[in-house]
Fold this sequence. Notes:
InterPro entries: ACMSD (IPR032465), Amidohydro-rel (IPR006680), Metal_Hydrolase (IPR032466)
Shape: globular
Number of helices: 11
Organism: Streptomyces iconiensis
Radius of gyration: 19 Å
Largest sheet: 8 strands, parallel
Pathway: Secondary metabolite metabolism; quinolate metabolism
Number of domains: 1
Keywords: Decarboxylase, Lyase, Metal-binding, Zinc
Order of helices and strands: EHEEEHEHEHEHEHHEHEHEHH
EC number: 4.1.1.45
Amino acid sequence: MSVIDVHTHVFPKISQAESRILSEAGEPWLRDHGDGTGMMMSGEEEYRPVHDALWSAERRVAEMDALGVDVQAVSSTPLLFGYAASAERGVEWCELINSRILEFCSQAPDRLLPVCQVPLQDAEAACEAASKAHAAGHRGVHIGNHIGLRNLDDEGVLAFLAHCAEIGMPVLVHPWDMLGGERMTRHMLPWLVGMPAETQLSILGMILAGAFERLPKSLKLCFCHGGGSFAFLLGRADNAWHNRDIVRADSPHPPSSYVRRFYVDSAVFDPKALRLLVDVMGADRVMLGTDFPFPLGEMEPGSVVRECAGLTEADRKLMLGGNAAEFFAIRGES
């Protein structure tokens, strides 16, 4: 049984000088301490301590072997998105990041699957970047769930998603820049509360805005972190759609009608929560995702899938690798 993790991150070695591509003040860069540890930096500010599996392919593969993971889809750390920059800076920045991701994955091409990022602040530039990355060997696109005040139902974003469907690039959506930050300054609450809320907002916002009615069904779209609070609150959304015309104004079908239009990863950390997620989405719409190598991720990849009651072996095979093989068109994997 192949184990494919669709939700893993890389922070390539980027110098402070290179970070000025994005901003003269210096933006995200990596301070490598040379002893297997480092610090993600934001300008002069320390952002988060990290270890070398985040930037060393050799270390990454060794940890994958120890954890029993065959393949990882590798996407940038969201701090690197750079959506606040001008389109011109964003294009150059994404070219740098994407080339570093390709370089990282080329060190173990049968184990590491490169996933690009794009300057989503400009739809035309994002489409061009996705096409260029696809031609260069990237197997998918990693985007944030919003660009400032623009959600995923924004016309420019929808044009970009339609383009991804046209060129056959799967899209991985990650929450970032979480709402309510001024009220969640302690205890990592933006990650514990904001991330699930952001993802729920993205999925339900697309549904109720009629976005899926305007997107081709060939689009492969996956929401990280188990789709956030979407599955748990889907009944509430359906009830609102049936009882309030302002909820259903732009959506011809109740929210539950759209669960076959996207995937989610399995990063919910509790077998009971995963059971609900599978009941809502179907086992063929849930893919293993761990948030490797960050400490809020699943420490034993696939353990929640394996421990989830009521799943068949066929279900587990799909969720641990089969669905991801189909999503990313990985030949010979199942």
